[in-house]
Amino acid sequence: MSRFLVFILLLFCYSVCETSYAQTQPGQKLVILYTNDLHSRVSGFPSGNQHPDTCYSKADTLGGFARIATLVKEEKLQNADNVLVLDAGDFLMGTFFAMLEESTGFQLSLMKKMGYDAVTLGNHEFDFGPQTLANIIAQSADNGYVPSLVASNLIFSKKDTADDALEVLFDQKILNTSLIIEKNGLRLGIFGILGRVATGNAPQTHPVKFKDPVKTAQKYVRYLKENEKVDMVICLSHSGITLDEKGYWSGEDVLLATKVPGIDLIISGHTHILLEKPLIVNGTHIVLAGCYGAGVGRYEVGWENGRISHLDARVIPVTNAVPKDTLIRYLIAEQEQVITEQILKPCNLLDSTLVAETSFPLICNLDTLLEESNLGLLISDALWHYVNSNDHPGTDISLFPAGLISDNILPGKTGEQTVVDIFRIIPQGYGKDNIPGYPLARVYVTGHELKGLMEILYLAPSLSRDNYIYTGGIRATFNPERGLLRKITSIEVGNPEKGFMPVDFSKKNKKLYSITADSYVLGFVSIIKKLSKHLIVITLKDEQGEPIRSIDDAIIDADTEEPGIQEVKEWMALVWFLQQQPDINGNGISDIPIYYSTGNPGLRRE
């Protein structure tokens, strides 16, 4: 063999050894930090809802991006480039911070500064539709800082232009169908899934549709392994897991792991479950970190000679014991001031305004005791009392869905509840006045139509627990043994103070009954005819009995003296109602009455 060939052979061997060194040296590891369902809890939240966690907070709090940033920074100081930071969606919606995102792009930019590498989309990112989501992402990118965004199962319309701006972000590589990230010699393939239940909870996604999660996952696992030759496949899945009736883990991400071999790690979201240790299904590790940033998941793997070993997994509590990163804390304080100026001051409120105090928890749990929720009762009562006290001619009935309740009211150490605490209960929606929250509207129906509506409300929770409706000013009885759309046996309207009057729901009764609810709920009522295949026909009317053209025509105007419509949001009505409650202990703060310590369902079995 010539000296030249020997030299080439030695050079080749050296090159192979050099390129594989990172994979063969012992002790190599990767630390994955992960969150899910942050819901814009940028400033954190009180551990017992005592006080908002602003830069001057005195209370015990959980979460907060400044603390998460500290955990990320500490991990990177210890492990250099061996740290990957990921989020499994629903990073938006839940606090006032989300309401200025379209104009500021603050949160995604902040997450990039904190060290996030990749983020997927959850259903709440679509709450204002694909155009607004595109605007939020584009504004964040214009700021110069945005994590890599990955969403693998979106389908864009070829005819409707309403999703074009979002599709353009894929062309610009701001949004991606999959990602390749290299960390210290390990080649990582990442894709993102929005699950079936989550998409069902996202009514504003139109015209965007979604591919089957399992088929999408199979496609990207095959692509990442065969084409990109990745060492590890990570799925950011906003789908979730649940406990079945027998106490076993089930749900979409369990199905995903079962049906799609080859996924090394599923970072799950949507169901807000905290897994202290991974759930292992078909060789795939599934992890969740709870919600709201109260915990940061830490998942550590090692590898040697191309083989991955799972070393450690836990969830780190994000409490007062974690110091706040100075820069992130400063940026949050600046944005809080913007929120105060643009949202709260126009409503004559401040984030620290004390609204009420409570000695007991008010809770809505979609999985247990939904019908007996005292929080649902409180909100529906608040809507009823607000309209009857502030807007002539008042309302007979108020409706509020369980699916729009985003947090609970907990007494904590002091029982104090601020404007920020109350807003977190009902943060969703938007009107036309740039103030967050769905606006309240009032419509009129006949007794016969009201009976049809109650039949639908009886059936709706069987499709989704989100559909359970809390009511004010009405009570009804049902008989489950009766036939379809014949379950409701009696209806009464009124209130406990003045009594209830029976409703004649025969077709001959032309009396009108007023219903107040948010525009989202009434929009659903307006299409019951279509959904029921014309079995139930409800025509929403104005006070004179004339059919309304759209829900916009029924929006309640809080001040007819001012030009335009001064919208009333549900959270505003709840703040007002709580402020009207008596100060029982004489400390100058309204107390939530003990009446609300238990629930009182408006629909009862006869």
Distance from N terminus to C terminus (CA atoms, Å) equals: 98 Å
Principal-axis shape: globular
Rg is 27 Å
CATH topology label of the largest domain: Purple Acid Phosphatase, chain A, domain 2
Give helix % range: 25-40%
Query: What does the largest sheet look like?
Result: 7 strands, mixed
Care to give the gist of this entry?
This protein is α/β, with parallel strands linked by helices. It is built from 16 helices and 29 strands.
Give a verbal description of the structure.
This protein is an alpha/beta fold and 606 residues long. It has 2 domains: 26-333, Metallo-dependent phosphatases (Purple Acid Phosphatase, chain A, domain 2, 4-Layer Sandwich); 353-605, Alpha-Beta Complex (5'-nucleotidase,  domain 2), CATH 3.90.780. It has a 7-stranded mixed sheet. Strand 9 and strand 10 form a beta hairpin. The longest helix has 22 residues, at 3-24. The radius of gyration is 27 Å and the shape is globular. The N and C termini lie far apart (98 Å).
